[in-house]
Amino acid sequence: MINSNLHIKLISLVKILIIYFILSTKSYTEDSKIDKSLVTIGSYDATVKIKIFSSLTCPHCASFHSEVVPEIMKKFVETGKAQLIFIDFPLDLAAFNASKLLHCIDQKKQIIFLDTIYETQESWTSGSGIEDINENLKKIVKNLGINSSQFDKCLIDESISDKILNGRIEGNKKYSINSTPTIIINEKKLEGSASFKNIKKRIEKII
Question: Could you check whether the bond before residue 90 is cis, i.e. omega within 30 degrees of 0?
Fold first, then answer.
């Protein structure tokens, strides 16, 4: 009888462990799924997912994009180990408008837009007011296929605005973001400097 009871307990324990494993795996899988409407570089099958929350008017974000992102791409993205996910976290109206334009541009040109917007950040943000800044943005996107009429429609598109704002709210709630850029690697917030050295150290612990 004792052996029988022990056998039953062992079976129950195994069942509990199996259920726990299934739920844990499901949770990880759900967290790992990346919305394909987001701006990304790299394979969706990559082991490492790097979310970059940034504001397009943020000088630190511009430096990160021009100096750190190319290093990550060369070492981890091009080798299939990591995927970069760019998520809007606008800190002002100018950044918000620029983010809207990012989501109005053809997906194949979105990275070009990001590169351009960060390379010319000092120039297009130098207007005396939001109207001047919008005119500067209009010149940038014209070369990427968005005419003046499409530009105006994009800035008042509620679905795009809601998508950006909801992403910002969710990011703040989930990761306690209070500055940009904020880097999330496999759902864990990067602590310390957003340097390539620090990011490389975190990635190498995963792979």
Answer: no
Report the alpha-carbon distance of residue 13 to residue 163 in Å, rounded. 44
Q: Which two tokens stand for residue 12?
A: 């129950």
At 73, phi and psi to the nearest 5?
-60, -45
Give the 3-state secondary structure percentages of the chain, helix then strand then coil, rounded to 5. 60, 10, 30
pTM equals 0.82
Adjacent-strand bridge partners of 51 = 85, 184
The closest alpha carbon to 64, from 164, 195, 202, belongs to: 195
In three-state form (DSSP H/G/I as H, E/B as E, the rest C), the secondary structure along 41-85 is ECCCCCCEEEEEEECCCCHHHHHHHHHHHHHHHHHHHCCCCEEEE
CA angle 90, 192, 198 (to 5 degrees): 105
Domain boundaries, the chain: 38-206
Q: Which two tokens stand for residue 53?
A: 């929350």
Residue 81, CA distances (Å) to 47, 69, 105 in order: 6, 14, 27
Q: Tell me: pLDDT of 10 over 80.
A: no
Q: Closest Cα to residue 163, out of 104, 203, 206?
A: 104
The CATH code of domain 38-206 reads: 3.40.30.10
* CA dist., res. 7 & res. 13, Å (int): 10
pLDDT tens for each residue of 144-190 = 999 999 999 999 999 999 999 999 999 999 999 989 999 999 999 99
